[in-house]
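User: Please predict the structure of the protein below. I'd like the answer in structure-token form so I can feed it into my own downstream comparison script.

Assistant: Understood. Taking the following sequence of 222 residues as input:
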Amino acid sequence: MEAVKGVALLNCWASPYGLRCKVALAEKAVEYEYREENLMDKSALLLQANPVHKKVPVLIHDGRAVCESLLILHYIDEVWPTGAPLLPAEPYGRAQARFWADFADKKIFDAGIKMVRSDGEVAAEAREVLVEALKTLEGELGEKAYFGSEGFGFVDVVVAPIIVWCHAFEKYGGFTLEAEAPKLAAWGKRCVAERESVAKALPDGEKLVGFLGSLRKHLGLE
């Protein structure tokens, strides 16, 4: 594998999985090299660093690769003690954080992508799953400022990039996050306003809308 000094993150600008890694690295004040990947023409480094899945994100630290975003977050939290821990200190809290992070990936982002990549009944069913999942996640947030019981933490890092995508999903789903899950929408705005790590990492929402539009055209849906 190509020699990489220090820390590097291989990612594609739109990937919510890589964006959460950027947020975590910023929260831990880790200096790193960012390498943008063209997923239509993957670099030799990416293919060598992640030969199993051949996808982003990949964190390279001292010449060793860590793959899969949730595992990367765990690694960042354990290796760099600077800043507040991302995961709660006690086992039950950590288990709950992992559960909701997994929920956000499987029920929210996956449903949103399925909705955008489909039309008709399939898209309608995916939209229903997406909106219901957003409401469920809002229920977990409740009246808290952040998902973490001790403040901004693991679930917040995971979900913040997905919420940006949800604003892009709105265009194709005929719903608004503000109407369906107002507390979650307010939480998303709070993350951007109060956490520099989030504000600097997240892409422009309109750029994501354009990205999804291009995807739909490629699939012959527009």
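That's the full token string. The chain has a mean pLDDT of 94.
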